[in-house]
Every structure is written in C-alpha cells, then in structure tokens.
Amino acid sequence: MFFTGVNRKVGETHDGQATMDFMKQEQERGITIASAAITAHWNGYQINLIDTPGHVDFTVEVERSLRVIDGMVAVFCAVGGVEPQSETVWNQADKYRVPRIAFVNKMDRTGADFQEVVNQMHKYLGANAVPLHLPIGAENTFEGMVDLVQMNSVRFIEKERIVGPIPEQMMEQAKEARRNLIEKVADLDDEIAELYLEDAEIPTDKLMAAIRKATIKLMMVPVFCGAAYKNKGIQLLLDAIVDYLPSPNDLGAVIAHDPANEEKTYRRNPSENEPFSALAFKLINDPYVGQQTFIRIFSGKLVNGMSVYNTNKMKSERVGRIFRIKAKEREEISEAGAGEIVALVGMKYTKTGDTLCDENEQPILLESINIPPAVIEMKVNLDDKKNRSKLSEALAKLCNEDPSFHAHFDEETEETIIAGMGELHLEIIVDRLKEEFKVPVTVGAPSVSFRETITAPFECNYRYVKQTGGKGQFAHTVIRFEPNPGNGFEFVDLTKGGVIPKEYIPSVQKGLAAAMNKGPFAGYPVVDVKCVLVDGSSHPVDSSDMAFQLCAQMCFKQAFLKASPVLLEPVMKVEINTPDDYIGNVTGDINKRRGRIENMRRFRKGSQKLDAFVPLVEMFGYATALRNLTSGRANYSMEFHQYMPTPKDKQEEIVKERNTKE
Description:
This protein is of the alpha+beta class. The chain folds into five domains: 71-246, Rossmann fold, CATH 3.40.50; 254-358, Elongation Factor Tu (Ef-tu), domain 3, CATH 2.40.30; 382-445, Alpha-Beta Plaits (2-Layer Sandwich); 452-563, Ribosomal Protein S5, domain 2; 568-661, Alpha-Beta Plaits (2-Layer Sandwich). The chain has an eight-stranded antiparallel β-sheet. Strands 27, 32, 33, 34 and 35 form a five-stranded antiparallel β-sheet that branches. 37% of the residues are buried.
C-alpha cells in the first residue's frame, strides 16, 4: 500500500497497524479475519486487491473472494513452508481455476529456506512451481535477490531498490537456475522450445510473454521471494502482478445461465459495451453510510442512480451511491466498469452470491458462492432481557455480513443459538457483539449440531380422531418409513383410488417435514428418511388440512422410535503437522478422542503430516491440548467431513443429558 501511494507510512501486522487489518479484533490478534478490498495503481495499471484470512475458521472469506478475483498471490513463510491452511486455500483456488503466483516471505528469519518451500509446493500442492528469483543470502544475511528473467541483482537499502550485476560467486548458480526456468517454459511454449533447441538467445519480452501465458493457463506458478517487514522484494512482487497475472481481458467471457433453463448459457465479455452483469460477494455494515454491498463487475457499466435487476430475488434495485474502497476508507465515484470491485450503498434485497444484471436485457444467473455448513454451536445469554431486540438486530446484521454464521432463537429452551465455522469464529462474533454493537452477552459451552435418522424400515398405521362437540377432526394415514442415506428427506405418494383426497397429500408431506425439525429421539433435526404414503382414509366433513398435518406428525413420532433410531454426529477431517519426536503423543491423543488416522506421510525433514477423522464433540479445546503435547511445535487445521453414526454408549449419554436438560 505504501509503494503504490495509497499509504504515506508502512503499517505492520504485529503492531496492529496493517492497512487491510482495520477491525479491532484483527489488530488485537495480529491476524486477518475479514477479507478487505482496496484499489491501488502501479506502473499505470489499476490493481483491485483483496486481502483474505488464512485461518480455516474464516474459510468463507477466502471462498467468496476467490469467486470474484482473476489472479492470486499465495504468500508462504520461508521458515514454515506449506502450512495445512495453505493447502486448504490452494485447493479452493484450484476449484475456481484461479491463476496464481507465489511469494516466499520472511527470507530474513532464522531457518528461512527458499528452495525447501519450492520443493514443498511441488510435493504437497502438486504445483509446477518455477522460481523466477534466487535469494542473495538468507536469514540475517538476506540482502535481495537475483532476477532470473532480467538476469540482474536487486538489493534494497531502506525502501530504495538498487539494480546491479549478479554477484560473481552466484553467477554459476544463477545460470543454472535460468536454464531450469527456460527448460520449464520450453515444455509449455513452442516458440521458446524452438529457440532453446537452436541454442539461440531468448529475448526477455518473449520469455515474459510465455511465462504469463503459462501462468494464466494454470500450467505453472512463478515463485518470488522477499522480506515484507524489511520492505525487500515488494516492488518486484507488484511488477510480477502486472507482468504475469491476468487482466479481465485475458480471461475472456464469463459464462452465465438462463434462470428459467439451466441448460441455456450466455456469454458476457469484460467490455463496457456489453450488458451489465455483476456478482455480490460481501456485505458489511458501516456506521456512517449503512450497508455496503461489495460487487465484482464482469461486464458492462454501472452508473450512479441506475436500476439493476437481482436475478436471485427477482427484484429491481436502484443503486444509491458507488464507492471505490480503500480498506476502511472510501472514495465516491459516479461510474464503474468491467473488472472493477466496488461497494454499493442503498441495496435493499441483495445478499452474498446474488447476480445483478441489466434490467432491460435477458436476466442471467452467474455461478454463486459455495457456503460451507456451520459445524459448531454456542448459546448466547443476555445479561439484561431488555436488550433482546438490540441483540436480534445485531445478529441479523452479522448473519447478513457473514453467510457462514447463523443465529436462531430456540422457543422451547428460550435460548439464542449461534452457529459458525469454529471456536475462533464464534469468539470473534461474541467480541463484536460486545464491542461494536454494545450488547452485553455471556456465552454457554458450545454444543454440537447432532442429527437423527433411522436404520431400519417401519410401517405405521395411524388414525387421528378428535371430537369436540362441533365439527371434529379426522385423518388416517399408513406411512412406511425407510432409511435414505445421503439423500435427505424424500416423500413418495403411492395411494390409489383417491383414498386420501388429492388436496390433503401436500398436508401429509408438510406435517412430516415439520415433525423432522425436532426428532422424537433426542430433539435434534431428522435427516435421510424416505416417507412412503401407502394408504389412508378421510371423512367428508371432519377431514381437513390441519388434521392430516397432525396425523402425519403423530404417525412419524410413533414410527421413528420403532425404526432403530441413531444419532449422527459431525465428523471433522483433521490435518496435523507434528515433529517426529511427538508422533506417539499425537496419535495416542487422537485415538483417545475416538479418532481414526487415515494416513501419515513425511511433511518435511523431521516432521510428519497426519490425516485423521475425529468427531467434532471431541475436538473442543484441541488447539491448547496439541500445543501442550508438542511444546507448541505442532499445528493443525480441520474442516467438516460428514455426519456419521454415534457409538451406542456415547449416544445413550447424549440422549440422557438432553432429556435431563429438558
């Protein structure tokens, strides 16, 4: 930000002064929590930059940013190398096919090893990582780098870069590294291959063009190095963003679908002459201007006061004001074009993942954003019941901003339940409730989102009769309940001859769906059950929509407990990096937590990487436990894997505990 002229001084992450980490919680912890957008200029090019978190609890911030960016700079630590969370983000980038370059940071730290990080990128990420830099020195002797494309050296004094010849003692190493670079590029580009085979001199501009082409096609990942804290290598990284990452024109048209027919597609080119199309990828509440909706414009032009069509909500929206964002600062602009990332004020209906398009043209639907399911719940209690409406407003705003965060009020227990991606995620939310929204709350121990299902088929014949003097209630259903693993709730009507009038069939389905919200076994939602309506009867006067709904609910409750019900628990995929010395402690602890180790592989010299599946209920406080087991030398990441049956003894314990509370 300093080098592009956005900032007048350099802020550091560790002292809470980083431009993009402007939230109070980010500054206190020295980490990125929310993705922040900024617009900067370098060498005559406009760069729209999004800084995303690395922590897996904030994976949705990465997911939604990757959906709207054209290129990515993956930052690796020269000491830590490829961390588990780096792999998670890399895999997300693969899913969205985002071209990327890599920057190996902290070359001035003790233990920095540039080549080892490149090797790990090959090994663990499956990346065709090709160094375009060669570090001059390492750790406290790190001075700069050899640029293998320009074949010169770049050293840094304060914030100035000094370009000079390659040090004599490094010349052979530099020639070998450049030969390796040209060989890699020749494998991917015919023109370079021809020149290489003829042993001809390869012009720099042709080599750069070939590297750019291969990077955009995801065939190679150029690797650079530096030390951001000492301002070494940042200008070269900015040059690399301009030289090797794609502009919207390089990536061409975006493919959109017809909302009425998914088979039908439309192309939108990144041109201001095309109809307008954009994707909303983030919402934030600003105390001064209200809700800001961040959008990436894929085609056309957006002008202040213009009306746009929200395809997902099937409503027209008027754009109040357009802002170009610089982290927490903003600059009002009158128009924005294809490729830009801007914030809109005045949008009433637009949410994360919604498509905005030209209201006078054919409506289109852009690929939305994948939101992972919440895996951890926590109870939030108010110190003062008078603040209930204040809490509701605050939670609604937070849910709006963060689609991976959910909140609901449990009528029976009269508790507000919040759900998110992990302990840190919910800790930040509670912190924001207290600091930002001034709602004093206390939190209860996190509870896990269990599910209920059946493991055996059962047919239930239920007759619902209620006589109250006037018009009575009558409904009769015969429903067969079957396990339906992985396919959710399914309703099938096999009745014949109108034994149940057609208008009451949806009532049966509605009643079953309502009964599944709270299972009879332990009060958790029911999943993966196929309900087959086999037979039934009705009364010409006493039957009604409500009677059939209630009959279906009673039938479900009665049958469920006789169909061998089981509790399903969320199981997490856990990835642990640990030094060899502690491998016994770590595996023993995983086994104690009912975990199953899938595989173990060499991570780097002296370290192992473990893949395990562990129930979430056993993972609370694992970060502290792992630190204690390994003297703080191991780290881990986890993500939701799937719901699996709970062991019988554990199941009985959970059901008993649940019933005691109720």
